[in-house]
């Protein structure tokens, strides 16, 4: 080499410098944005939850776990937690059941044709239509369903009921019904997503599995429960975790759709709504952050539990 | 005659799905029932949306009247004009287009830059930074809500589009980095190495070699981010308060018409506004439905 050893070392050194310079220049901006707007707020939230900060005083006062002990006596908080519990149980169950039913029809309902399992006629069309609500903003869907659920005959649903001679139902003003009405909107919007998700899982099943089963005389119910279900169990679990996490949100829908934002009489309130209201309507920032921490631990507990269950099932299967 | 008969039989066979294999005979109740179920759900999905479009052409008494399911008596576009002008849907729409296009573009730029470096360069702290990004996926946004508001306010960015854009980028990074890191790892080394041998700089290798190779992954995540940011509701109502209505985004504008509609009671205007929010998504969805479906389910099929 014409530069000699020293030049080579310098060249290597400068190549290395360029490499680190490049790594730094590519990571710096995303990392700064992420730390400033995501990591630092999360870290601050835990501290703010231990203060009585109301936004006016420059220095929030440290009050230990007082916010959390107050939370334990807060009826609205417990109502919200109960609603999350109900959503967590019912929403994934209903959504997954409907989505599994439709994706089975769309992928395998046509039986075997020319050796391959096919969906019913028009399955592509149905899949496209079913998925569409997923693309709409939850806030838009909320406003839309407000017109559908209106309590008198002017609501679309009650108009239909009147047509068949049934008295109008207070979909959103009946305390026993309101949360279910809101859950129905979530199901309406998300079924298509899970149909597509499960369809992907079903199309990954080798076709000779079905052929062998069909030759052995397995009917549709056997095909579904003994073959399809176990083979896409992983995908179903992914869907379950997604819907479980969604059950801890529901903010936009409850905020837009429910009577009095979380009403009537707190019958539909959820923690995200309470956090938002406590912070930005009542300026109780410390207390709102304590709710945020509670929500965080609820979500994490759910995620950890479902991961554990998943792992156990995997061991059983193998 | 024979020919038509056999073809009729063939059609009947195709209609009743797997009639050939089953001993039950050519008529299959399962097929009919499954079609009924599928059509019922289709009506449930399409019905409310179609009804919104129709209601936007009705008059107030027609909507509030006793026959909410009737067709409009005459098609009037007046409500669309009112929604666009008086309810400022046009303004909100343009605001949203501006905010989402800028923030998605920069989300993709920064996200792919970070993901590329994390996927293909070994250096001290690589894993730590990767996990820092990915950890953002497991936190509920509501935990950060209060401090986030004050961080943005202290930077003087509250009630500005720049503030919303920066926050959108930051909150889109965890998934973008998570997905694209995995994607960049799957790309072959040889092309990039050859380019570097030929004297291309790291930056040039990235923009001219790696980005084109990563196109399928980038498109999926771009769609994912556009939809996610377009439909965002919580962050706008926290970061763009009531005082700056001229800066509002579409979701917040629609939700607000709803709450004020009770007083002014311009129902056709509300449904025209809703239709205006739905139609662009419908068009985009019809054109890109394959990419949208794969983009949105991308997270689950890692």
TrEMBL record, chain A:
State the PROSITE patterns in the record. Answer: ABC_TM1
Q: Does the keyword Transmembrane apply?
A: yes
Q: Which residues form the ABC transmembrane type-1 domain?
A: 81-306
Q: What is its main location?
A: membrane
Q: Where in the cell is it found?
A: Cell membrane
Transmembrane ranges, per UniProt, are 20-43, 86-108, 128-149, 177-200, 221-243, 285-307
Q: Which family does it belong to?
A: Belongs to the binding-protein-dependent transport system permease family.
Protein name per Swiss-Prot or TrEMBL? Carbohydrate ABC transporter permease
UniProtKB/TrEMBL annotation, chain B:
Superkingdom of origin: Bacteria
Membrane topology listed for this record:
Multi-pass membrane protein
Q: Where in the cell is it found?
A: Cell membrane
The keyword Cell wall biogenesis/degradation is annotated on this UniProt entry = no
Q: What is its main location?
A: membrane
Residue span of region Disordered: 1-23
Q: What is this protein called?
A: Carbohydrate ABC transporter permease
Q: Could you tell me where the Basic and acidic residues compositional bias lies? A: 12-21
Q: Which InterPro entries match?
A: MetI-like, MetI-like_sf
Entry annotated with the keyword Transmembrane helix: yes
ABC transmembrane type-1 domain sequence ranges = 93-288
Which keywords does the record carry? Cell membrane, Membrane, Transmembrane, Transmembrane helix, Transport
PROSITE patterns hit by this protein:
ABC_TM1
- What are the TM regions of this chain, as residue ranges? 30-51, 92-118, 130-150, 162-184, 205-227, 267-288
What's the family? Belongs to the binding-protein-dependent transport system permease family.
């Amino acid at each position: 080499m014409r530069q000699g050893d020293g030049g080579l070392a310098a060249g290597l050194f400068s190549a290395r410098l360029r490499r680190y310079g490049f790594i730094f220049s590519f990571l710096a901006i995303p990392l700064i944005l992420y730390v400033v707007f995501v990591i630092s707020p999360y870290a601050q939230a835990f501290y703010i939850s231990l203060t009585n900060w109301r936004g006016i005083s420059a220095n929030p006062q440290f009050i230990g776990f007082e916010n959390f002990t107050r939370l334990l006596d807060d009826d609205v908080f417990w109502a919200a937690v109960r609603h999350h519990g109900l959503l967590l149980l019912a929403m994934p169950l209903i959504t997954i059941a409907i989505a599994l039913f439709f994706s089975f029809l769309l992928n395998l309902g046509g039986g075997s044709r020319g050796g391959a399992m096919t969906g019913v006629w028009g399955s592509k069309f149905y899949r496209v239509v079913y998925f569409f609500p997923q693309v709409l903003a939850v806030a838009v869907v909320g406003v839309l369903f407000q017109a559908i659920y209106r309590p008198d005959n002017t609501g679309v649903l009650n108009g239909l009921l009147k047509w068949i001679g049934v008295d109008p139902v207070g979909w959103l003003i009946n305390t026993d019904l309101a949360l279910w009405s809101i859950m129905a909107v979530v199901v309406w919007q998300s079924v298509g997503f899970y149909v597509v998700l499960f369809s992907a899982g079903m199309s990954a099943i080798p076709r000779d599995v079905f052929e062998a089963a069909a030759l052995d005389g397995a009917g549709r119910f056997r095909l579904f429960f003994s073959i399809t279900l176990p083979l896409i169990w992983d995908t179903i679990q992914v869907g379950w975790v997604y819907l479980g996490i969604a059950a801890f949100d529901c903010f936009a829908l409850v905020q837009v759709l429910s009577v009095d934002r979380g009403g009537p009489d707190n019958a539909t309130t959820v923690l995200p709504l309470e956090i938002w209201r406590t912070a930005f309507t009542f300026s109780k920032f410390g207390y709102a952050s304590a709710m945020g921490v509670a929500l965080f631990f609820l979500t994490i507990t759910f995620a950890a539990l479902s991961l554990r269950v998943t792992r156990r099932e995997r061991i059983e299967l193998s | 005659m024979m020919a038509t008969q056999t073809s009729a039989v063939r059609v009947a066979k195709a209609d009743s799905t797997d009639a050939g294999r089953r001993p039950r005979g050519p008529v299959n109740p399962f097929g009919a029932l499954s079609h009924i179920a599928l059509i019922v759900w289709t009506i449930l999905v399409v019905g409310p949306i179609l009804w919104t479009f129709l209601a936007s052409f009705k008059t107030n008494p027609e909507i509030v009247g006793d026959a909410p399911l009737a067709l409009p008596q005459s098609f009037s576009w007046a409500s669309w004009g009112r929604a666009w002008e008086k309810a400022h849907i046009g303004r909100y729409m343009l605001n949203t287009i501006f905010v989402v296009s800028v923030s998605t573009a920069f989300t993709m730029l920064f996200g792919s830059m970070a993901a590329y470096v994390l996927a293909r360069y070994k250096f001290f702290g690589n894993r730590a930074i990767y996990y820092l990004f990915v950890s953002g996926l497991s936190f509920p946004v509501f935990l950060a809500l209060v401090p986030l508001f004050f961080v943005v306010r202290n930077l003087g960015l509250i009630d500005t589009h720049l503030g919303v854009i920066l926050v959108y980028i930051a909150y889109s990074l965890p998934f973008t980095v998570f997905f694209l890191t995995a994607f960049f790892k799957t790309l072959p080394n040889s092309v990039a190495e050859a380019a570097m041998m030929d004297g291309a700089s790291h930056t040039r290798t990235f923009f001219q070699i790696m980005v084109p190779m990563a196109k399928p992954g980038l498109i999926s995540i771009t769609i994912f981010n556009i939809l996610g940011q377009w439909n965002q509701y919580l962050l706008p109502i926290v970061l763009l308060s009531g005082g700056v209505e001229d800066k509002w985004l579409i979701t917040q504008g629609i939700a607000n018409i709803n709450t004020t509609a009770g007083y002014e009671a311009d129902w056709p205007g509300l449904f025209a506004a809703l239709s205006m929010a739905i139609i662009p998504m419908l068009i985009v969805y019809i054109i890109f439905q394959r990419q949208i479906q794969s983009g949105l389910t991308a997270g689950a099929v890692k």
